[in-house]
Amino acid sequence: MADxxxxxxxxxxxxxxxxxxxxxxxxFGVREEKRRRICGxxxxxxxxxxxxxxGVMFLQTQDWKLPVFYVIQxxxxxxxxxxxxxxxPNRSHILVNNICMLLCVGFIILARLSFEKAVRxxxxxVFSGAVTMVIPFIMDHIWQLGKIPWLYAIxxxxxxxxxxxxxxxxxxxxxSLTVAGLSMQPSEFVKISFVFFTAAMFYRSTSRRQVLxxxxxxxxxxxxxxxxxxxxxxxxxxxxxxxxxxxxxxxxKYLGLGIGGACLASAxxxxxxxxxxxxxxxxxxxxxxxxxxxxxxxxxxxxxxTGGWFGMGLFKGLPNxxxxxxxxxxxxxxxxxxGALFAVCVLLICLGCFLQFLMIGCRMEAVFYKLIALGxxxxxxxxxxxxxxxxxxxxxxxxxxxPFVSYGGSSILSTFILFSVIQGLYILKxxxxxxxxxxxxx
Length: 442
What we know:
Layout: H1 2-26, H2 32-61, H3 65-87, H4 93-113, H5 115-131, H6 135-141, H7 149-166, E1 168-170, E2 173-179, E3 182-184, H8 187-204, H9 208-227, H10 231-249, H11 252-272, H12 274-284, H13 295-307, H14 330-338, H15 340-363, H16 367-391, H17 409-441
Antiparallel strand pairs: 1-2, 2-3
């Protein structure tokens, strides 16, 4: 009976996230008074999907820890909604909804893969959600954030140098530091300070001298990451800087130079780093060495192909055969058990977040805030693309995570910070417009 329910549940789970995704894009085409109703429907769909998925997992395992864990998560989501409703009346409802939906999907797939890791992830999520709740307030009340670019640069470069000199190696790259018994990945936080530095520098000036100085510091970030062999993060920083430079200057020459630099850097990486050659060869032909270097991507493709459009059902696939499935290849696990349609909807929700970032940036009057929204949005959507592209063999694997869904404490906290900064920009603009309307009336 449990197997039958798991098999049938694939269809309502897909329908629920498809409806949520539809409302996610429908939100952009309606007036303000209708948007709250749409967000209310989305929240209902999320709670229903969450309940159904955990109900299926409980029937499959008969493990009473799962319903207890479900209730605790449901309470957290309610509290998170309530805190934003209480402290930030002018919040972006759609961003809060999307955070919770992506976390919901992450909890479901992690609880299926490893209950212990799901619990650790939940603890980090609660801490991150509580700590970053204050960021929109800071964005609304502190106006000097664009005046301290060198502070962002010093902090970022200092953290990256600490990783380079004392970092721990994982899968061929120095990416983490252990502080007081806790392992962290500093590059996840430096990518945010990097955007603030670049935006602050271009807010001051876009003269040739300023561009050269900013490019030199940005290149230093990328070179340290490359020296640490953290090439996925280096690529993310590089793409973000090129787009910010082009957005700030509207100079096509800079964009062309950036593309040319990317080609040269790719060739240099191939020549200098053996693990890059291994990943590229595995990408080109994973079947040639399926038991070794091609094993991970081959298992990922098997999982996606086996799942089909609607998946095999929770606890009916074999996603744990994929190495590091809970991090770099969580997209494959979702595709295998929840289906390709479900996985595509997750990506579309991420795309909806990116579009919201751009819309918020367009509304801002200050160039500094516009560039922050563009930079953080670029980082976010490129990271989503790199994760999904690596899992589907569209591009070589880069070792980056799917924000809010993959397992990883640093990734969770940094993504909460990123969304909270964007939320702060939205609230700042809404509060300004509210004050203007009040002054016009009185």
